[in-house]
Amino acid sequence: MSKPSFIGMRFRERVLIVTTFPIAAFAFSVVRSVLFGGGFLPLMVLLLLALLTFAEIFNAFEIRRVNWALKSSIAPPARPWFVSGFWTWDGAKERITSVRSWFVFIYVAAAAFFSSLGIGLMVCAWIAFVVLLFATKVFTPGDWSQTFSVSDPDMTGHVDAHVGNGAVNLVFTHLDRGQAQVIDHLSWNYTSRATIAIALGFIALSWALVPVISRQIRELATSLLGDSGAVESFTSRLSNWIERRKQGRAAKS
Questions:
Q1: What is the rounded CA–CA span in Å between residue 173 and residue 185?
Q2: Which of 89, 119, 155, 167 would suit a FRET pair with 244, their CA atoms being 20 to 30 Å apart?
Q3: Which pLDDT value is given to residue 171?
Q4: pLDDT tops 90 at residue 2
Q5: Cβ neighbours for 21, distance < 8 A, ≥ 6 positions apart
Q6: C-alpha distance from residue 119 to each of 127, 185, 206, 241 (Å)
Q7: Alpha-carbon span 96 to 108, nearest angstrom
Q8: What's residue 33's pLDDT?
Q9: How far is CA 73 from its chain centroid?
Q10: Is residue 240 scored above 70 in pLDDT?
């Protein structure tokens, strides 16, 4: 498998984050609603068992997607995960005690968190890039004015917005917020050196952190989804801890 170029890898990292966010966010919302949403208990138990079963399919899909996005080679775990049927008591116990299925849930939560950070950084970088184009006068906006009415239980008045001469001016007229003091105007010189420096800073921050976030998502997929031995290690440690607890209780009795 050929290694992507520098630019190609940066593109693939962004593709991974952009595709991870909607998938992980939706999956996390489903898992959260089943685990913490409440409802008719037998139905929620059935939904939980269904999610634990579907985790095997989701695991395989995510490994293929991450490998495709980054041209990585994460090894999938052996399948099938479950031997007993879904509607049997042994099948229910098998799914409830499946460490791999619960690791998929942990992956979904972590991937949703990191991909949301990545999306936020990329959006800020694009906004900073557009601001930089105006700040360096590559593009010069024409004069623009607009008046907005503010009608809210906590604040009323008018806001006059004007863009022109390299600045954005906001003038607040008859703005009343009870006893609080409200400033009467704001002015932002978007062609200033400070604006250019801040915009470059956001772009540099995105370029520096997006690869880190992408690698973190890949590591999550490797350790929590892949055949890395993490599940076996966790299961062994958990079994040893339970055994020590049993021995301690037996010694006390």
A1: 9
A2: 89
A3: 75
A4: no
A5: 112, 115, 116, 118, 119
A6: 12, 32, 10, 39
A7: 18
A8: 92
A9: 23
A10: yes
